[in-house]
Every structure is written in C-alpha cells, then in structure tokens.
Amino acid sequence: MKKAGNKKWLWITSLALLPFAAMAQDSATTVHSFSVQQAVDYAKKHSVQVKNALVDVQIQRETNRELTGSAYPQISASAGTTYNPFVATQVLPNFISPATYQVLVQEGVKDGNGNPIQMPGDFGYIAAQFGTKWSATTGISLSQIIFDGQVFVGLRARSTAMEFSRKKAEVTEEGIKANIHKIYYQLVVSKTQIDLLDANIDLLNKLQHDTKIMYDNGFAERLDVDKVSVQLANLQTEKINALNQVYNGYLGLKVLMGMPVSDSLVLTDTLSDEQVKEGILEAADFNYSLRKEYQYADLGIKLAEYNVKRYQLSKLPTLNLNGYYNKNAQRDKFNFFGKGDWFNISAITLNLHIPIFNGFANNARIAQARLALQKSRNEQEALKNNIDNEVQTAKNNFSSAISNLDYQKRNMALAESVYQQTKKKYEVGTGSQTEINQSQTDMKTAQTNYINALYNAIIARVDFMKATGKL
Description:
Blueprint: H1 2-16, H2 18-26, E1 31-34, H3 36-46, H4 48-71, E2 74-83, E3 89-93, H5 97-107, E4 125-129, E5 134-147, H6 149-156, H7 158-216, H8 222-257, E6 264-267, H9 273-277, H10 292-313, E7 318-331, E8 343-353, H11 361-427, H12 433-467
Parallel strand pairs: 1-6
Antiparallel strand pairs: 2-5, 3-4, 5-7, 7-8
Helix pairs in contact: 1-8, 3-7, 4-6, 4-7, 6-10, 7-8, 7-10, 7-12, 10-11, 11-12
C-alpha cells in the first residue's frame, strides 16, 4: 500500500516538472545565465521597443544631416534638348516696305499710270519665324544661402534635437528595465515558494506515514488518514500550478527582453529580505533631474524655445547667392555632337528678400509657437506634481510592504513552531487530528501570506527606485 502511494506521488511530481523538462529541451541550442543587470543589458540590445527607439535616434541624426546640407552650396548640372515641329511664327509691323518706298519716292519713280509713287499710309504686317527646329542647353548652377535666420536656428538646435531623441530612447529603456526587475525577482522569489511547498509536502508525507502506522495499530481512524491524503493532494496540485506559473513567467521575461522563447534562461541573482529593504531611507536624496521623463520634458521645452526663435527670425531679410553657366546651341537637324557653334550663357545674382507684410501670418505662427512652449512648461509642472505623487506613494507603499514582510515572516515562523508542537502532541497521543489539521492550515496560510508579502515588497521596491530615479 505504501509502495503504491509513493508511485502516485512520483507520478504527480513528474507531471509538475514537465514544464521545466520542456524548457530544458527547448534550450538545447542556447543557454543564457543572467544576473538582473545582464538581463537589462540584453534587453537594451534585443527588445523591439528599444531597437525602434534607437532607430529614431538614427533618423534624427539623418534629419540633422539634411538640415546641415541645406546650409552648404547647392550645385546641380542639367542638360536638355527641344524639338519644334513647327517653329513659332511672330507677326510684326512691316518695317521693310517703308524703306523701299522711301527710296522710290526719293528717286521720283512713277507707277504704271505715270503718277509719282506715294508713301502708303499703312504697310500692314509681316509673318516671320524665329528659331530653329532643334535646340539644346547644358550647364551647371549654384545656389548658396548667405543669411536665413530660420536655417541658423535649425543648425543651433541640432544637438538639442539629438539629445531629445536619445532621451526618449532612455525613457523607453527605463520602463523596460523596471518591468524586467519586477519579473526577474518575482521569479527568483518563486524558488522560495516552491521550496516551502516541497517542505510542506515532506511534512505531510511524514504525517501520512505516521498516521497510517497509528491507524494500523488502532490509535487513529481511517478518516484521519484520508484527511492527510487530501491535504497532500491539494499541495501537489498547488505545486503543479505554481511551477506552471513560473514557466510562463520565464516565457514572459524572455519576450520582454527580446529573447527567443526557445532559448533557455537561468537566473543567477539571489534575493534576501535584507536586499529588499535596501534603499528605503534614500528618498530624501531625490531631485527631479534624476528622472528620465523630467530630463526628456526639459529638452522638449528647449526645442519649443528654438521653435519660437525660428519664427521670430523669419521676419528678418534673407540673402541668397545664385549663379549659372550654360551652353546653348540651335540646329535645323539633330546634330549637336557634330560641328557647330555652342553659345555661352551665364549669370550671377544676389537676391535679398525683405518680408514686409504677409497678412499677419508670421505673427500667428509666433503666437502658436509661444503657446506650444507654454503647454510644454505646463506639462513639465504637471510632471513634477506627478513625480511628487509617485515618490510619496512609492515611499509609503515600500515602507508598508517592508513592515508587512517583517510581520508575515515572524508570523510564518510562529505558525511553523505551532505546527511542530501540535505534531509532537499528536504523536504522543495528547493532541487530536483536528488540531494538527488546523495548525497545518494556519502554517500554510502564513507561508502564502509571506510569499505574497515578499512579492509585494519586490514590486514596491522597484517602483520606489524608479520613482526616485535610482533604479
């Protein structure tokens, strides 16, 4: 009978370990043994969110290069040809006939009737075609901004824009870092939970064995043996569920880190109650600049200030230098690569554009930029208020969680002591099965409360460190 019972628990334990067996099989190719810092570093390289944030930094870098390029000379070459099937005809006043008539009048020439030729009052028009069927032009042109206030402001804002983009990536990294810390240490604590379940299973196995002996000797009822068996089965089921949650927690951590789920992840850090308590008195050393979100908002204000300056300087004149050098040729046939003249065409221009009145549109743009700047400042003030709330709330939660952790740890030790004393009384016949069942239930409740308190303390610690910018 005892042998059959052992086989049953062996089968249940094997079932409980199936998730970890599957994990071991999946990790045949790659195994990662990570501390929490190594897990964070891995996520910075492989998390899709972080990757995209870093891509945004590269995009900003190329945007800066584009802006810088607009301040350099712009040089371009061109070549083209035109075919005119019908050369354009121009109608002009008849300027040839008056000269001819003037000669005839001066020479006294007479017409067919013997009358002197007279100068007509209207000579009419003549139609003439100017140009050729084929023409070609090739050349090079240059333009250079000499002064443009908006471009100069953009050049000055490049470094701030880059820092703004980098800070956004850091904010993304900070959020992922906090979540990794929470999940990582919850998985570390889960080992304590499994250890407590194993210890309780061992205790119930011994209690079942002792109760069975007492039953065989007539000192216990069959009902007492069955009650212990039910408790043991419940614990085995709880362990199976706990192991499954741990396995799913590993999968979630891998996804958060950007690690293939087929890889194996081993957590190398440990966690004690003393480590959880570290940092609880550091809140007094807090200032807003430690928070990435505040740094990000501060850079946003600087960019908004640059935007106001950009529109203000758009009221100033702009000065541009332009020049070109072209070659032009006309042909009746397409033979530009043969003999024939190419004529030079060139010009250098200096353009001064002075804005005088644009319907107050520029004033409206300046007003919009100032209002946007005011919004950024308002949002920063709101962020400061939110940070104050987060810090105070996190501090309160952390202090409460630590106090609860200490209390639950003492209560768990007391419950375990009560169980051991009750068990001794039961073994010597001075205690009842009801008492030992109740003490076992109380001990299990105390252990569950301790694990929950430890989980809550970890989350409270991470939230506290993140709120104070010290994670």
